[in-house]
Amino acid sequence: MGSAGHSHPAVRPASNFAERVRGGFERQAGRYEREAELQRAVAWRLAHHCRGLPLPSGPCGDLGSGTGLLARAIEQQRPGLTLLRVDNCAALLGQDEAADRLAWDLNLGLPCQLQGASLLVSSFALHWLEQPERQLEQWCQSLGPAGWLALAVPTAGSFPQWRQAAQAAGLPCTALPLPVACRLVEMASRHLRIARVDHLHFSRKAPSALTFLRRIRTLGAGASPVAPLRPGEWRRIEAHWPAVPAARGGGKRLSWEMLLMMGQKPAP
Ligand SMILES: C[S@@+](CC[C@H](N)C(=O)[O-])C[C@H]1O[C@@H](n2cnc3c(N)ncnc32)[C@H](O)[C@@H]1O
């Protein structure tokens, strides 16, 4: 595995929040693949769209690859293609033993290995970066002529039940703030010919809202810049979280809005 950017001239210490994000994934790394049901489904769907892309020559990378769910799905659906896995969590990267991997903090931009890339893919990762729009712009700029970007990222329309319950309880919503889909599309369209924009909606059911919080933490994805609630406060959120009618099985629901976007850098 390559090492993190310790010798890179642009290296600056990871921010407190980036360190907390890394620590969260690091601690739960052994459980990630078992719990990442939604991530696996999205990876497979994004890989499917990458199957027939006319790729120019150049490096290919999976940004925020984790254990490599997306890179593996693409390599399975497109034999012969290999992607560099890039992630700053060594414990997740380390589970993808056969692969070409680089431990790297994507808040620093892209590593030099991916300049002039022919394919950059990323799923469930851009929203963890400090400036998602700015990083997305750099990803677009790093593509070589006729190179492709394939992105899946949860966006600001996610978790409506959580936001509404928090508002009704007069408490902050402690979910990770997510990028606004149309702003990402607008940014990418300045640099790429956009070939696909899908707004996907997923929802999951659980016996209680607290179960969702636990599942997110189990995945290692519990970090948020918003201070955590005390147990009594979370109970107030739970009380305001809309219940699924008993006739439809009861429990609570949580929904994700995902942007799936593909675009190609114009050839000169
Ligand atoms: C929810 S996981 C998604 C992993 C994988 N793409 C998937 O779909 O299963 C988010 C990933 O982003 C990575 N990540 C978060 N912040 C990062 C950063 N600053 N630099 C590199 N990777 C980062 C995490 O370590 C984690 O592997």
Q: How would you sum up this structure, described in words?
A:
- This protein has a domain at 16-158 and 177-204 and 256-264: Vaccinia Virus protein VP39 (Rossmann fold, 3-Layer(aba) Sandwich).
- Helices cover 35% and strands 21% of the residues.
- It contains 10 helices and 7 strands.
- It has helices spanning 16-28, 32-35, 37-50, 69-77, 90-93, 132-142, 160-169, 181-189, 209-218, 231-240; strands spanning 60-63, 84-87, 101-103, 117-123, 143-154, 193-206, 252-264.
- The chain has a 7-stranded mixed sheet, with helices on both faces.
- The chain is globular and about 55 Å long.
- The protein starts with 15 loop residues before the first helix and ends with a strand.
- The structure holds S-adenosylmethionine.
- Residues 18, 21, 25, 36, 39, 43, 64-66, 69-70, 87-89, 92, 105-107, 123-125, 128-129, 221 line the site of S-adenosylmethionine.
